[in-house]
Structure formats: structure tokens, C-alpha cells
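Q: My collaborator sent me two sequences in one message, no labels, and asked for predicted structures for both. Can we handle them in order? The first one she listed is below.
A: Yes, handling them in the order given. First sequence, followed by its C-alpha cells:
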Amino acid sequence: MEEIKKIKNIVIGAGPAGRLGSFELGKLGEETLLIEKKYIAGTCLNEGCMVVCALTDISRFIRTFKRFSEIGFIDGNINFDYKTACDNIKKTRLFLRKLNQEENESVNNNVIYGEASVEINDEGKIIVTVKLDNDNPLQKENLKNKEVNIYEAENLLIATGARPFIPNIDGANYALTSSDVLNLEEIPSKLNIVGGGIIATELSNIFSSFGSEVRIIARSEILKELEPEIKSYVVKKLINEVEICENTNVFEITENSIITDKGEFEGKTLIATGRVPNSEIVADIVELNEDGSIKVNEFFQTSNPHIYSAGDVTGGITLTPYARKEGISAARNMAGYLNKFEDNIVPQSLTLDLDVSFTQKQETDADLEDIIIPGLGGPHAFWRIMKGETGLTKISLNSETDEIVRASQISPSSIDDTAYLAFLMNLGIDKEAFDDFLEVHPSTDAYYKILKIMG
């Protein structure tokens, strides 16, 4: 019988919520074991945000080169090797995994790799069994002669994230997902992307810049998160090389085509239709929400008060910074420092040739005053001026209080600009507060310009 080791805190899942949650526990001096099934840092580093950013850097370089060539002061050709690019992304990814592990170990946490299972024994104790992955290059040497470790946890944090949702479509097994992007041997000549959200749009932008003939196929409308003027700019000027089929139903996917109610289209298919919470690990132990996510209270406790959960597996807002914040909050509660998670105004983004960022307060019945201006011709936007492609900024103000209710910006600096504006919105700032605001120049942030003019 394998010895059962007693551990005060166990965290399962080393994505943003689990990694930051375990790190917080370690900083608080709490004994903590972090268990990861596959790769530390979760979807964000290994299949999501960082992969999109890396490929978008290449996409932007290609498009900038073409823009300069069209203007006439740069001449030449670009030979792009997709597989070599992906190989180098993987090397960088491994380097970052090591850094993330070292960070957790720096606060005396133990990190191991393997597939965990959870049960409650007859005495009501939390038992975690780990089938060790000894092929993982980051696995501890002293574990590589073992198959299983068994632990008894005083507290458990489930932060197992989510995986791509695969709709019930005939032939869906032929389709790729975002998880497969780095394993392609070559760029598809034709690519059909099923989905209409941020991931689908970002991938459509990347592959169209690489030379693929890309088509987005959406069951309803694309980019519902965006305001109409912002969506229109994205469609007409940022993904204008992509064919968009809205309100289209998919009947079947084959190895080299997709069949819809608007006809059959050749090419590989990639499905980007959302994500499903990885809650199966405790599905028989704690209460779940209707969508299969883990139900938690304001302290991130599940229906078992010694089992906590945070991040994408709990549903709600599935963003990396939000998951980090949830993981830290859950960890503090596990350590006895009770705190409630505050729902703040959340900035979001869409990574394209220009960044698209947006944020808003909860729905309001107040009358709104909308202001829209073209993007500014500052850094990384100067050579877009002559074609009127510097972006767009829109702000909506509460007509009674002058508080900012919604903000959207398309510009080279929009990610930073919108993050700080969301922070100010959380503080209840109004337009008058910008009277004495002194901007950095040159800049492509148009928020301050609108607010200073109106102040």
C-alpha cells in the first residue's frame, strides 16, 4: 500500500489561477503542493494568449513590410518558414515553463506533474492520488522511479481550467482546435474557422496574413462583445482579407472541406466555439452549475468547505488576469485571511494588426453621450495616416453624472490605455478629472483627448 502523505494545501492545476494561488499560499508561509497534469502556466502560455501574441508579432511584421513596400521605400521578399517559427515558440515556451516552476519553488512550494484524482474517504478526508508523468522534462528526479503518489489534504484548490468546446457536428474529429496550431507542418492553403468570438477572429487574422484563404463561419454574428462602430472597423480594415459567413449552420466536416447551409467550402477546418470547464475531477464530490462549471461562494469555497475552486473551471469571466485574481483571493481564504472577491470593471482585448481593447460598467438605464474620433497618428501608426487606418476610439458617458460607462479603442497602445482607464472607471472618475491630465507625447491614446476636450 502506497504511503499517504499529509499536506496542508494542495492545488490541482497550474494555469493562471492555480499557479498564482499556490504562489500566494507559499508567500504566506503555507505548506503547498502544486500538481499539474501537463504543462505549468496553463492554456495562456501553452496554447492561448502567448501563442497568439507570438504569431501576431510575425503577422504584423509581414503586414508592415507589405505596407512599406507599397509606399515604395522598402523592396524585397519575405520567405516565411511556419514550422521553424513554431519550433522557436516551443523553445521559448519551455524556457518560460521553467521560470514559472522556479518562481513557485522559490516560496518553498513543491511542484509535481501527473494526473490527479480526488476522493473523500470514509472519515471525510480529502484524498488526492497522482499518477506521475515521468516523461515530463520538469518532473522531479526523485519521483521518476515511482508511478503513484497519494496525499491527504487539509485544503484543496481546484484550478483545472477549461478546454476547447467541440460542438456535436458530424466529422468534428477532422477539425483542428487552437491547441493544434503549433503542431501544423505547414500553413493551410484554405482554412475554415468555425466560431465568431475573439479566438476565431485572432486566428483568422494570423493565418490570412500568412497566406491562407480564410473563412469565418459563425452560427450567429461575430464579435458580439464589440460596439457596432468598433466591429465595423475590425471587419472592414483589420480582417478585410477574411471572408465572413454569419448566421450560417454547419452540417458536416470532412477531412478537406466543410458543409454548411450556404454550401460546401474546401479547406481544413478549425473549431473555435468556446471552452468547456474541466470540472470532471470533482463532479461527484462538489456541486456544479448548469454549464458544468464548479459552483463557488464569495470566498471561492465549493459545497465542501475545504475544497476551493478558481479560474476558468468556475465559469464566468474566462480571462487570464481575472483567473489570477481569483486564484490569489481563493488562496488567502484557504490560509485564513478571509476576503471577498470584488467584481471590477474588466478590460478585454482582441489581438490583431492593431490591438482592439474595450471595457464597460454594468448595464445602465441612464442616457449616454457617445463620442467617436479616429485614432491618433503616433508611434506605430504614422505610416497608416495616409490610408486612414490609424484606428478608432469611442467613449460613452453618463449624461447626468459625466462618468465613463463604456470605452473602446483600436490603436497600437489600446491594451495599456484601456487597462488604466478601466482602473479609473472603477474609482468612479468623471470627465472633469482629466482637466489637469498631462499626457505623454507622442502617443496613440485618444481617451485623454476626448475627455480633456469635453472636460
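Q: And the one she listed second?
A: Here it is, processed independently of the first:
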Amino acid sequence: MTEKALPARRRLDQALQLWHRALDAYSDADEFSIGINSLIQALRSVTWVLQKDLQHRDGFVLWYSAWQDRMRADAVLRWLVEARNRIEKEGDLELRSTARVSLIASWLPAPYDEFDVPPLLPPHAIAAVLAERDIPKEVRDTGVLKVERSWVAATLPDRELLEACAHVYKILDALLGEAETRYGPGPAASPDERARNLEGLIAAPAVRTAFLHLGTGELVSVGRGPAPALADPDQTVRDRYGDLFARPFPGASFEERCRSHHEIGRRMLAIDGHHQTIAILLRGGMRVGITALDIEDQQAKYLVMDELAEMVARNSADEVILSTEVWMAVQLPEGDAQAHKRAANREDRTEALVTHAVARSGDSLTLMTPFSRDGTRIVLGPVQSDPTFPLALQPILGVWKRG
């Protein structure tokens, strides 16, 4: 932050520090209560400080009145104002320590239960106890138990408190960013620094969430990471792949973008002999996120796709393109002993590169390239279209449906 930052920006930075202190105190009821009260008061004071500092500047009143209308229309911001008034006049917020438990065993929205729990009981301990219950074998073999610990306020029962405050922080950050551009002294932080601040707020639920692999009884985590070849090709990448990533899309349509990325995948597969699972997020036809996904089994696939759906929401993406290797096998008659086995577990399996593309508009397309191996050489088959919508992308549709 620059020395000449707006006073309101310094106040918002203080609120960010209080937010992280409250997260650190999540398992201590008294400390969390103190932290959340201080955080709410700090967030509420940002707009007061901004108005006091800039109220005499030309055009401020008219510009700020438009922001006031936007903020009054936000239910969480209205709650924050009421919560601050309650803290000042009546005392601490009435808090509940809860656990939301979901059983993830399909691509449909997972059923869940929510109940009060002691603050000192961590999510992994709750998951271990619940896993001892009677769960059907077919669910236990492929399912994941998700346990999310939350603090909620009686006056905002449907939102976790730190997530609600993070929502307010993002709006205030945007407000101050515009004020800094209009009234100086310019941005208080670089775009990268602001992005890291926001990413810290986004990543916080992982601290209070546990995933238990019902098949093994072990805790698991979501596997994803950067896809550097696509995101930022360096000289090593250029030496290996040539101009593969340098050229623009051949066209602006949804189908052309999908076909372009599938062709990139085919060429990477031919060069490398394998293709890691890569997801590309787009907004308005432009890339806004790229990530590599680590999928070891069906349980991991559920978690990864759920996390990918949340990435879509965070980036306001309106298209997703996912390329991956898959096993394939021909459909067998119902009475065949192999009929219900997954393709990966069958001896007659074959390989293919698949690219799924789905758009918020409702468009979807799946392209598939069967391939075989001749020693170390990849032999690519022709590109085929598959009209079947991939169920694995259902969580992304759910995010778009929520709005």
C-alpha cells in the first residue's frame, strides 16, 4: 500500500487483517466472537471514512449516491449495517457453531444435514464419527463425506459469517478502487496484490472443511494446480511445442473455441505421450482461468468438479472447456458379467482424448479422438462428436442456475 493511500483504503486493509485473525480463532468461541465483532465494525466504518475524506470533492456526492443505491440493494450489506448497530447498542451477536454434512456420491446436488456442534470439534473429527454409520456398500465404495464447520449469526442463518464479511470486503474493495481512480492518489495496491487478497478470502473455506474418502477412510484434498504451458509459455515450452499456444483462436464462436482447444490437446498428446486433465475458464470468449486437475479415482473426481464449479462462480466464467484422457469400452448386453464394470476396469478398454465444452447459454459440445500406442508413438484417430452431455459437468450447470 502506498503512503498516500486514501484513509478508507487503510481502514479496509485493517479489516482484512481482522478477517484473518477471526479465521485463526475459528475454534475458539470467545476469541471468534471478539474478532467477528471487531471485523464488522471495521467494515462498516470504511464508507464513513471515505465520505468524510472526499465529500467536498467535485462530483463526489453524485458519484457516491449511485454506489449507495447499489449497496442498499445488497442483502448482506444491509445485514452488516444492522449487525454493527446491534453490536454498538445491544452487545455481541448471537452466534451458532454448526456443521453441514454432505454425502457426495453422484453428480446431482448432494443431500445434506446441518446441526449444532461444539466449536472445539474439528471437521475431520466429525467426519470420522459419521463415517462409522451404516452406509450402503455401493455408496461407500465411491462416495465422499464432506463436513463444513461454520459460524452463523441468528440474524443471517443462511450465510457463514466470514464468507458474508468477505462478500462485503469485495464490494468495498471495488468501491475504493473506483474512488482511487477518480480522486487519487491512484491505486493503493497493484492488481496482483489485490487479487492475492481476494484469493485469500476465497480459499478460507478449506480451513474449516474436511473430505473423508469413504472407500479408504482417509482424509482427502482437492487436487488442482497451474497449467503453465497454456497460461504462460516460456522458452522451454516454446522449444517443445513451437507456436502451439501463441496463435489466437481461429474464430469467435463457441464451437470454434472448443475445436481449437481440442486440436491443441491432440498435438500435446502426440508430443508428450499423455495429456493431463486441463480446465479452461472463459468469459466473453477470453480466458479468465486455467488449471490442471489431479483426478485419481471417482471420489477425487467428485471433489475436483465441485471445486471447478466454484472456480467458475468466482471468475464469473460463462464457458468451460475441459480436456482429458479417458478409458472407453463397448457397451455389452445386460446379462454380460462385464456389463456394469467401469471402462477403466475392463481388459478390452481403449483410450481417447476428450474435450468437453459447456456454456452458460446452454450450448454444449463434446469432441473425442480415439488413439492407440505404437511403442512410444501416439497414433491419433479422427475427431468425433458426441451428442451426450457429460454428467461430470453437472455441478457447473448448478452454479449457473443459482445465478
